[in-house]
Design goal:
The protein has 15 helices and 13 strands. The protein is α/β, with parallel strands linked by helices and 418 residues long. It has 2 domains: 68 residues, Tetratricopeptide repeat domain (Serine Threonine Protein Phosphatase 5, Tetratricopeptide repeat); 300 residues, Spore Coat Polysaccharide Biosynthesis Protein SpsA, Chain A. The strands form 3 sheets. A 9-stranded mixed β-sheet has the order 1-4-3-2-5-11-7-12-6. It starts with a helix and ends in a 24-residue tail after the last helix.
Length: 418
């Protein structure tokens, strides 16, 4: 069956389903998947039909098989987890994704707690400042997955009183870059909580962040009935070659890498995010220095109020929530990837092939660094030193709410910010 015939068969099956001829529709979708097992739309339609028809075992099999073809498809992970929990319970889902609890602290969640989710691998040098920064900003508890660190990260995390640690040797790629793990942790501990999902090299920066906490921002979003806060991934770098950009544990990231590109993107596509509900930005300093081949997506939706209807996208490059639930304000995630340790890291990740596209971006990084040992991201024609959140608003990188730009206010009664 040719691709054209498969698409004709898919349209016919969809028509049968719409008319209520469900057995014909099911047969049609099965025929498609027999010939083209990676047909995403047919997989989703057939799996959901099985669920609706009270055939959960068949639905679970369909979604489990689909993960082999679509390990980075957030909707497949969501449906699979829903089906697995329905059949075998949440603990079985934890076992499938190989999540093992490593600390023994009681997890007492309070309704106002703001959570931070992280996946880390060999980040012991970044962790001290990262945790300090987010504690200062009002994060109450950290839910961390250690993906087989060998540098002492796990031991360090286990010493922290507000950090709850799971370990997994499961493939980072097959866990949809951590989103599969977060889905389970939040399903168990985070429903109706504001959750910040970041990497260990990302700091959330937002309008008025110098005088307000993330807790204040969340209360502001609650008042406006919003459930998600967007951000641009803004790469930060030094004015030195990457090889000479030395970082000491505990040091403020900005002391080492205070510069960014004023032209923060190269390509903009309206309503082209994974769910068609946001503008997509691509490029930035990485495209300027390493070229276009890496597909450097800059959209993030790092802060959201989690409920079971949320679909967590790998890398948090978007959200399935409707535009009415997404704040009009926009922040940035300051991205501190380019310390001197990045040289070896790029080589390691190129070999592991756990990142997007078989680590295609890391191949570009490694090649660029091999070609120029003095490679620097700094260029006086493009580079700007970060001064304030207001500066990023003026440059159009961050957005404020034009109707009400002063409502993110410090609530002294919460005592979250000092």
């Amino acid at each position: 069956m040719t691709n054209r015939n498969i698409e004709i068969q898919y349209r016919l099956a969809s028509v049968w389903q719409a008319k209520g001829n469900l057995e014909q529709a099911i047969e049609g979708y099965r025929n498609i998947l027999n010939r083209q097992p990676n047909h995403l739309a047919a997989t989703l339609k057939l799996g959901n039909l099985m669920q609706e028809q009270g055939r959960p075992d068949e639905a679970l099999t369909i979604f489990r098989q689909a993960l082999n073809h679509h390990p980075n498809e957030a909707r497949i992970h969501k449906h699979f987890v829903n089906a697995l929990i329905g059949q075998a319970g949440l603990d079985e889902a934890f076992r499938y994704y190989q999540l093992t609890r490593r600390d023994t602290k009681a997890i007492d969640m309070y309704p106002q707690d703001i959570l931070c989710c992280l996946v880390i691998r060999n980040e012991v040098h970044r962790l001290p400042y990262l945790l300090t920064y987010y504690r200062h900003k009002g994060i109450d508890k950290f839910l961390v997955v250690d993906n087989h660190s060998t540098d002492g990260s796990l031991a360090y995390l286990l010493e922290q009183p507000d950090v709850f640690v799971w370990q997994s040797d499961y493939s980072f790629n097959k866990a949809n870059f951590g989103a599969g793990w977060f889905e389970l942790l939040l399903r168990k501990y985070g429903s109706e909580h504001w959750v910040l999902i970041v990497d260990a090299d990302e700091l959330l920066y937002y309008p008025q962040c110098e005088t307000t906490s993330i807790a204040d921002l969340c209360r502001h979003l609650d008042r406006k009935n919003k459930r998600a806060f967007r951000a641009i991934l803004l790469d930060m770098y030094s004015d030195k070659p990457i090889r000479a950009t030395y970082y000491k544990p505990g040091q403020n990231f900005l002391e080492v890498c205070p510069y960014f590109d004023r032209q923060f993107y190269h390509t903009m596509c309206e309503q082209s995010s994974p769910f068609g509900n946001q503008t997509l930005y691509i490029g930035g300093v990485r495209e300027r220095v390493f070229g276009k081949a890496g597909d450097y997506y800059l959209n993030k939706a790092p802060l959201l109020k989690y409920t079971p209807d949320c679909i967590l996208i790998g890398g948090q490059h978007g959200t399935n929530l409707p535009t009415t639930d997404i704040a009009t304000e926009r922040g940035v995630l300051l991205h501190f990837k380019y310390f001197s340790s990045f040289i070896d890291y790029a080589k390691q990740e190129t070999k592991r092939k756990e990142h997007y596209g078989g680590a295609m971006q890391y191949r570009e990084y490694a090649q660029g660094l091999d070609n120029d040992e003095a490679l620097t991201l700094f260029n006086p024609d493009y580079s700007v030193k970060l001064e304030s959140s207001e500066q990023l608003v003026q440059l159009g990188i961050m957005h404020i709410d034009g109707e009400d730009n002063s409502e993110i206010s410090y609530d002294k009664t919460q005592q979250r910010y000092s």
